[in-house]
Request: fold
Amino acid sequence: MANEIFTFFVCLPLIFKYIKDMASFLYTWNPEYWNWLDFQDAVYRVNNKKQYDIRWSCGKTKRINTGDLFFLMRLGIEPKGIIGCGY
Reply:
């Protein structure tokens, strides 16, 4: 599974070029608390430039807009760390 996760990772240097002008958000996922049943499908779709929709809790934050930068971090079970980003 580790290889599949890291193929989901988008090249950050290209995004960092534009980050100074964008709001940024960190979404976290811990497989110990939430079993992402279609995770492999999500990875496949994103890697093949297809749309993948999912609802994600953002707490009280109401200022997330289309085009804002986000990072997805896996917590708990190895491999841990940032596994994706986008806007």
Notes: Residues 2-86 form one domain. The chain has one domain: 2-86.
